[in-house]
Write a structure and sequence with these properties.
The protein is an all-beta fold and 424 residues long. The chain is built from 1 helix and 32 strands.
Length: 424
């Protein structure tokens, strides 16, 4: 079977000192990007295999095995020049392995990022530059925001897209927590208990970008090694921050959403509300598939959740990053035998997505649909397959790919420690 999408060659490649686990460009300084690395000192194990094989020991044996493992890592700052050179700027050694990092969407000009680690720490770093001097990384503060044991890893983190003080994290002991981050970058629990608990590792988390009917309502999604996508609406009371009361309450039950055949490793809710079909959530899984879910009023009418499309990408879909989302309104075409269809308008939408597909490399995808069809279409536009081991991290340079320009991408692979620049 012929591979879908055009094959993309590398422009630059280099080998890192430690295995890369995550990468993100700085939105405020888009020529700079940061790579997080993950080094397991005792065994050759990667961040996507915390639990081992499918045949698992009991929970106590798993936790004992994890606690004796020693991990470290680093944060590496690079500059991508206009001439496609990848310039190493700085390396900061980190006492734990880095699992995930994300820049804040707005605070301090989007130059501060959160880092979660293998020892249950949450750190904040800033990209700074003195006048006429080079940009550098500086640590702001490191926290242990949860009372967890030494063997518990923080697996992922996600900022709320519209509420600047809200950050979610997931853990290897199956939990999802929402934290409040104050103006000094101190981290505070909003609720004593997790907002969602899976039955195996909680791999990933994301907030809905849709504005709720009540501004104090948040919707959160998480994915676990239990093959389950979870969703929950919670009530956020910002006026309680700093008091003895919880600033998050959970009056609504968590909702398990089935349809995956292996662990849910990536979640991308789109800023898209379809009148008769609901919100749109894209997921990735260890089962090599990307799926598009339509969820109509999902916290009360679970039966109306459906899979609008799915596609095999030949590798576990570890990360999904939205490149762009386009919406157009056009006249709905009349259908034979259906009166009154002519002249009605429908919303048509197209999303381009960068997918990190583990042993299948990086792919540029296009998903398209409309406001009336119960299905949509997934296409592979381009594929970068130079990586010879697990592609856990990819990102594109902010601002590239616009006005018919080329999308500049950096992708990484774990065991061969490869970092590549390519264009689509």
């Amino acid at each position: 079977m012929e591979a879908e999408g055009r094959s993309i060659p590398p422009l630059r490649s280099l080998t890192l000192d430690l295995p890369p686990s995550c990468i993100e460009f700085c939105p405020g300084l888009p020529e700079y990007f940061v790579v997080g690395t993950y080094n397991l000192q005792k065994e050759n194990q990667d961040p996507g295999a915390v639990t081992g094989d499918d045949t698992r020991d009991d929970g106590e044996q798993q936790q004992a095995a994890k606690s004796v493992q020693t991990r470290d890592g680093s944060l590496i700052l690079f500059q991508l020049t206009e001439t496609n050179d990848i310039k190493h700027i700085q390396t900061i050694l980190y006492p734990s392995a880095i699992l995930d990092l994300h820049f804040h969407p707005e605070r301090e000009g989007s130059t501060v990022f959160a880092v979660v680690s293998s020892t249950g720490t949450l750190s904040f770093f800033r990209l700074t530059s003195e006048k006429d001097s080079q940009v550098s990384l500086k640590e702001i503060i490191t926290h242990r925001p949860l009372d967890v044991g030494e063997g518990i890893l923080f697996l992922s983190c996600s900022w709320h897209p519209h509420i600047p003080e809200v950050l979610a994290i997931t853990t290897s002991d199956y939990q999802v927590h929402i934290l409040h981050i104050d103006e000094s970058w101190n981290a505070h629990k909003t609720l004593a208990d997790p907002v969602i608990t899976h039955t195996l590792e909680a791999w990933t988390v994301a907030f809905s970008p849709l504005p709720p009917m009540n501004p104090e309502h948040l919707t959160i999604f998480s994915g676990g090694d239990d093959s389950t996508l979870m969703s929950r609406k919670v009530h956020f009371y910002p006026e309680r921050i700093g008091s003895e009361e919880d600033s998050i309450e959970t009056p609504w039950a968590r909702i398990p959403i089935r349809g995956h055949e292996a662990g849910v490793t990536a979640i991308l809710p789109l800023d898209l509300q379809l009148e008769f079909l609901g919100c749109v959530v894209v997921t990735g899984s260890y089962d090599d598939r990307i799926r598009v879910f339509y969820m109509h009023n999902f916290y009360t009418f679970v039966s109306r959740t459906c899979i609008a499309a799915e596609k095999t990408l030949q590798g576990g879909v570890w990360r999904l990053k939205l490149i762009n989302l386009q919406k157009t309104v056009g006249e709905k075409e009349g259908q034979e035998g259906q009166e009154g269809q002519e002249g009605q308008e429908e919303l048509r939408w197209t999303a381009q997505i960068l997918a990190s597909c583990m042993h299948a490399g990086s792919k540029v995808l296009q998903i398209s649909g409309d406001s009336t069809s119960k299905s949509c279409e997934i296409k592979v536009l381009g594929r970068f397959e130079e990586h010879k081991s697990m592609n856990y991290g990819s990102d594109f340079q902010p601002g590239s790919g616009q006005s018919d320009g080329k999308l500049r991408c950096i992708s990484t692979s774990f065991y061969d420690r490869l970092l590549c620049l390519w264009e689509y």
